[in-house]
Amino acid sequence: MAFKIATIKGIPIYIHMTFLLVFLLFAFMFDITRFPYGFAGVEPAMLRYIFSVAAAFLFFVTLLIHELCHSILATSYGIKIQGITLFFFGGVSMMENPKDEKMVEPSKELKIALAGPLSSIILGLLFLGLNYAAFGVFYGAPLISGSIMIGSWDILYRDISVLLFLVGALNLILGIFNILPVYPMDGGRVLRAWLAKRYSFQKATEIAVQTGKIFSVVMAIVGIFFNLWLALLAVFLYISAAEEGKAVKTTFMLENVTVGDIMTKNVITVDESMKVSDFVNFVFQNKHPGYPVTHNGVVTGTITVDDIKRINEAERYALTVKDAMKTDVISVAPETPALDAFEKMNVNFVGRLVVLDAGKNLAGILSRTDLMTAINLRSSLTDTSNLGPDYSKKNKPADEKDKDQDKNKS
């Protein structure tokens, strides 16, 4: 699940919910790690917390710059970016029509992929250079006298130097590490571009994702014995590879599919005059958690089981559905692309959308189940020709291959 935080250069920026967990984890690691790799021992404790969170936040900002460099260069090639979903050590750039040949052209893919690592390396050198200009050191922080009282300006300067060093060093590591040909790192995107010359974009992504997962597992095992930071990074890489693989599969499988193609047309509705107590029984009978609410055939809202949880049992006999329903109906049209509807669900944190036709009449309802069913069906029924230009020939029976050869001879 992701939520939107901003729009930069026309590109919507989203943060995945797992980012909050990883953000706090990194802040915690900075808090317990000693100088010069963290702020353990800094007093008062509030100052230590502030510097730990600031280090995590600054790294998030530089990560955003990293992803924007990818996306802005992609838009210069005419590739539309539908949005960026950020994790802590990477991000997902949702591109329009990922099967388009221009999306996987090696020369363009190479430039787009390297734009991010290059920006991270430049930012890393910039922060380390700033540390040197201000404190005379690239690595760590300036040495200070142990006799200086805790909380003095000299101690504060040392902590600022550690902050600059951490952000600079992390960006250098991010930039260099991303060049490795392992998905979802940028080097892995170059690998995917090369694979896409032999397979479809989706198949190339699947191979690159599996390669990334295997690498992450090996790195996690090594990290457990030698460096817990490495193990933490490996866990994130595995999650990122899996999430981006799902995102690409979703985009691919919902391409050219509209809401009208997959929505449920026989919709059960409730009248806004229904008593809440009767609605409870209605839910048990129909076994759905949510319903459109109508008045004289016109949709006036939606109501779910969650909406009535806050109403005590005594009041349920006096209140109507109109009193408990949500009036801000989140709707789509039948001709809306299914992928757009999927993104609308994620942005609004809802599990279903009301489908209204041009006259605002109820045409159907689209649930996550409808979307997942469409994705799974299209995945299982995908033509083998999508797996690559030579796949069909390699897997034809011998007699069919002979027929093709005879045709070529003739």
From TrEMBL:
Residue ranges spanning the membrane: these are 13-33, 45-66, 72-92, 112-130, 163-183, 214-239
The CBS domain sits at 263-319, 325-384
Q: List the membrane topology term(s).
A: Multi-pass membrane protein
| Stored CDD domains | CBS_pair_peptidase_M50, S2P-M50_SpoIVFB_CBS
Q: Which cofactors must be present for this protein to function?
A: Zn(2+)
Q: Which residues form the active site?
A: 67
Q: Where is this region: Disordered?
A: 384-410
UniProt keyword terms in alphabetical order? Amino-acid biosynthesis, CBS domain, Cell membrane, Hydrolase, Membrane, Metal-binding, Metalloprotease, Methionine biosynthesis, Protease, Repeat, Transmembrane, Transmembrane helix, Zinc
Q: What is this protein called?
A: Zinc metalloprotease
Species assigned in the record: Methanolapillus africanus
The coding gene here is: rip3
Report the co-factor binding details: Binds 1 zinc ion per subunit.
Q: Name one GO biological process term.
A: proteolysis
Q: Where does the chain bind Zn(2+)? A: 66, 70, 186
Positions with biased composition (Basic and acidic residues): 391-410
Q: Which PROSITE patterns is this protein grouped with?
A: CBS
Checking InterPro entries in the record gives:
CBS_dom, CBS_dom_sf, Peptidase_M50, UCP006404_Pept_M50_CBS
Tell me the PANTHER family matching this sequence.
Answer: MEMBRANE-ASSOCIATED ZINC METALLOPROTEASE M50B, STAGE IV SPORULATION PROTEIN FB
